[in-house]
Write a structure and sequence with these properties.
The chain has 757 residues and is mostly helical. It has six domains: 8-153, Cullin Repeats (5 helical Cullin repeat like), CATH 1.20.1310; 197-305, Cullin Repeats (5 helical Cullin repeat like, Up-down Bundle), CATH 1.20.1310.10; 309-470, 5 helical Cullin repeat like; 487-561, no CATH class; 564-671, Cullin, Chain C, Domain 2 (Ribosomal Protein S5, domain 2, 2-Layer Sandwich); 683-755, Orthogonal Bundle (Arc Repressor Mutant, subunit A), CATH 1.10.10.10. It has helices spanning 3-6, 13-34, 46-61, 69-93, 97-121, 123-132, 138-170, 177-189, 196-224, 227-248, 253-265, 270-275, 281-286, 290-300, 307-336, 345-365, 370-384, 393-405, 413-427, 433-449, 456-470, 472-506, 535-551, 583-590, 602-609, 613-624, 645-648, 683-705, 710-720, 728-740; strands at residues 565-572, 575-582, 599-601, 631-634, 656-659, 669-671, 707-709, 744-746, 752-755. The strands form three sheets. The protein has a three-stranded mixed beta sheet. Strands 3-5-4 form a three-stranded antiparallel beta sheet.
């Protein structure tokens, strides 16, 4: 040992602690803190601080038994404990409510300052003794003392005081955020780096308090406010709670407190708010309260299972509106006292407007949420597949398209395109898409053959939309029809040149004759009339037969006179008119060319033309009882009064007819309309096609699966058939038919089938 070390004076514990450390550092520190010295104040000059630090260092580095590290560490804790017990705790116990928080914040800041200085005085302990013995650091020990001796004693009162201030703010009175924030931060710091204390001793009570508060508020709002006002208050409460968290609570509390508010203010009252009399969801929808609906959606979306009940009300509302449109259609038909037809532009326009309105509402108010899109889809599936009277909605929709695609619709291409888009959207909800296709194909054929189509481009556009919706197979025949007409242009040009040369040989003079060749599989099946054609028509038909046979001797021609048109020049008195008529009308009109036979009976007409009585009645009705009476009907009932309109509007087998010399009209070119001789669609053919489709689907499924139960097979068939929805009973019949024809057999298991290769 060196002389210097051996001569160093040993510092006794009591002398060093009481006379130096306590008297010169700790007692003055305590007095200065109590007098309100701020944390940023330089409490000890450098020289004094250095002297205390050096003394502590020396006392902790002396050789045993004079190494006082353990004793000083213990007395550090005792000093803090005495200060907290004797000064801090009594001061807090004398306060309450807001004053308790103010005192706690002050005492917390004081303790931090005291802890900091004591850590600096005994820094050597932290560096060596604490680390070596794995003890809490001086700072941790100081905080732990504060927690155990002070905080744990007052935390319940502090939490209550904070919650009272929060409720005061919720009721609209301003509070000091700094005091609340600093008090809350004390709960956080007492966890020593963890949030256990904050969560267990404050947040838990905050959430319970919040639940109680908003339970009471919700009951009050329900009694005094309508649904929109209630939702405004609920939304405001949620926004305020978010601000509250930002102002003085820990960020982790936000989802928890919002969840409580959402459940108490919204989740527990979904049904009441939706169905509240005079202001519920259906009322908001009826009155187009878009802002209120948007708010309802936003708020209900926050609550688990909050949107499905709202979507159900939305669906029910649309179904009710659809039913109203249907009832309005029925009322309109009854009031007009007219025969129901498949043309009801107003009804389809109503459905389109309804669909367009609620598509827009879903986008603007419901953020295009899938739940509401599904509700809209189900609602319109219900509407468009309802019984709409004699004609199904599929028929009405097809006729709507027919009207806007015909010449004379007075719509621009943009308007036609827009209406077609909207109609195809409705078409997507139909179960009987194949029925629509059959009707549309029939009407398309009439537009094309009668040259009544407004635009080939619009026709192609509509077929393209249907193709996109249902696939290429759905529109194959429609595309084939357009293709036939496109190819036919060249054929027609060649035949026209041929016919010009042939006409003079046949004695047809200036007769013009054009023909359109159709592919049988593409076009609808129409009635074939075996008629006795007038000479001029017979020669025209024969000329084309001769022309066509030369180049197509392997193909057979079939003539559909019911689809043709003709323009006949008729002279009535001194005036001549161009009569635009169907081929059947033209055949009958030409029978009246013989002036030597002024009157022709119904039966004579039937015998001369070989036209069946029912068709003859309809054609003669158009010529003698319609708008343009170019033929005069002579009824057997001679005593019929002039005003007997009902009698005059009926064609009977006992009637006779004569040329109407007295006919006159302001127009030179006249189109004589005639009622359709065929149904819009061949429903029998549709049923036959469905039978084939069901059986093909069953065989396709069984070929892939080999063995399958009845329920599973039925389910897969229903899933795969997209153009119509068959009845499960029909599927069962088709299965039985396939078993009879040895495509399937019953398996050993009950209700199971096996595929036979």
């Amino acid at each position: 040992m060196s002389n210097e070390a051996s001569s160093k004076k040993v510092i006794e514990l009591e002398a060093g602690w009481n006379e130096e450390i306590k008297a010169k550092a700790l007692d003055p520190l305590e007095d200065m803190i109590e007098k309100g010295m701020k944390n940023n104040t330089k409490l000890f000059p450098n020289k004094e601080y250095a002297g205390i630090y050096t003394l502590c260092y020396d006392m902790c580095t002396q050789r045993p038994p004079y190494n006082w590290s353990q004793q000083i560490y213990e007395r550090h804790g005792e000093t803090l404990s005495q200060y907290l017990t004797n000064r801090v705790l009594p001061a807090l116990q004398q306060k309450s409510e807001k004053f308790l928080l103010e005192e706690l914040v002050k005492r917390g800041e004081n303790h931090i300052m005291m802890n900091k200085w004591m850590k600096q005085f005994f820094m050597y302990l932290d560096r060596y003794y604490v680390k070596y013995h794995n003890l809490p650091s001086l700072e941790e020990a100081g905080l732990q003392h504060f927690k155990n001796l002070v905080f744990d004693e007052v935390k319940s009162s502090v939490a209550t005081a904070i919650l009272d201030l929060i409720n005061t703010e919720r009721d609209g009175t301003a509070i000091e955020h700094d005091i609340v924030r600093q008090s809350v931060m004390l709960f956080e710091s007492m966890g020593l780096g963890r949030l256990d204390v904050y969560v267990n001793d404050f947040e838990k009570f905050l959430l319970e308090n919040t639940k109680d508060y908003y339970t009471r508020k919700a009951e009050s709002w329900l009694q005094n406010d309508d649904t929109p006002a209630y939702l405004v208050k609920a939304e405001k409460a949620l926004e305020e709670e978010k601000k509250r968290v930002k102002n003085y609570l820990h960020p982790d509390t936000e989802p928890k407190i919002l969840s409580v508010v959402e459940e108490e203010a919204l989740g527990n009252h979904i049904s009441l708010l939706l169905e509240k009399e005079g202001s519920g969801c259906k009322v908001l929808l009826m009155n187009d309260k878009l802002e209120d609906l948007s708010r309802m959606f936003r708020l209900f979306a926050l609550v688990p299972h909050g949107l499905p009940p709202m979507a159900d009300v939305f669906k029910s509302h649309i179904c009710d509106l659809g039913q109203e449109k249907l009832e309005a259609r029925k009322t309109r038909l009854e009031s007009q006292k007219e025969k129901e037809t498949n043309e009801d532009m107003e009804y389809i326009k109503d459905l389109i407007a309804l669909h367009e309105k609620y598509i827009a509402l879903i986008e603007s108010c419901f953020e295009s949420h899938a739940l509401f899109q599904k509700a809209l889809k189900e609602a319109f599936q219900d509407i468009v597949n309802k019984d709409s009277g004699k004609f199904k909605t599929a028929d009405l929709m097809s006729s709507f398209c027919d009207r806007i695609l015909k010449t004379g619709s007075n719509m621009s291409d943009e308007e036609i395109e827009s209406n077609l888009d909207k109609t195809v959207q409705l078409f997507g909800y139909l179960h009987d898409k194949d029925l629509f296709a059959e009707m549309y194909r029939n009407q398309l054929s009439k537009r094309l053959l009668n040259q009544r189509s407004a635009s080939d481009e619009m026709e192609k556009s509509m077929i393209g939309k249907l193709k996109l919706k249902c696939g290429a197979q759905f529109t194959t025949k429609m595309e084939g029809m357009l293709n036939d007409l496109s190819i036919g242009v060249e054929h027609e040009k060649t035949f026209t040149e041929y016919f010009k040369e042939k006409a003079s040989q046949l004695g047809l003079g200036k007769t013009e004759f054009t023909i359109q060749v159709l592919t049988t599989g593409h076009w609808p099946n129409h009635k074939v009339y075996d008629l006795a054609l007038p000479s001029v028509m017979a020669k025209c038909v024969q000329s084309f037969d001769d022309f066509y046979t030369v180049n197509n001797n392997m193909k057979k021609l079939g003539w559909y006179h019911g689809l043709g048109n003709a323009t006949i020049k008729g002279t009535f008195g001194r005036r001549a008119f161009d009569l635009q008529v169907t081929t059947l009308q033209a055949i009958l009109l030409l029978e009246f060319n013989d002036e030597s036979v002024p009157t022709i009976s119904f039966n004579d007409l039937a015998e001369r033309t070989r036209m069946d009585p029912e068709t003859l009645k309809r054609v003669m009705h158009s010529l003698s009882c319609g708008k343009y009476k170019v033929i005069k009907k002579i009824s057997e009932k001679t005593d019929a009064k002039e005003g007997d309109k009902k009698e005059k509007a009926i064609v009977k087998p006992t009637d006779s007819f004569m040329f109407n010399d007295a006919f006159t009209c302001q127009m030179k070119r006249i189109r004589i309309p005639m009622a359709s001789l065929e149904e819009t669609a061949n429903t029998k053919r549709v049923e036959e096609d469905r039978t084939i489709a069901i059986e093909a689907c069953i065989v396709r499924i069984m070929k892939a699966r080999k063995t399958l139960g009845h329920q599973q097979l039925t389910s897969e068939v229903l899933n795969q058939l997209s153009t119509f929805r068959p009845d499960p009973k029909v599927i069962k019949k088709r299965i039985e038919s396939l078993i009879d024809r040895d495509y399937l057999e019953r398996d050993g298991a009950a209700g199971s089938y096996k595929y036979l290769a």
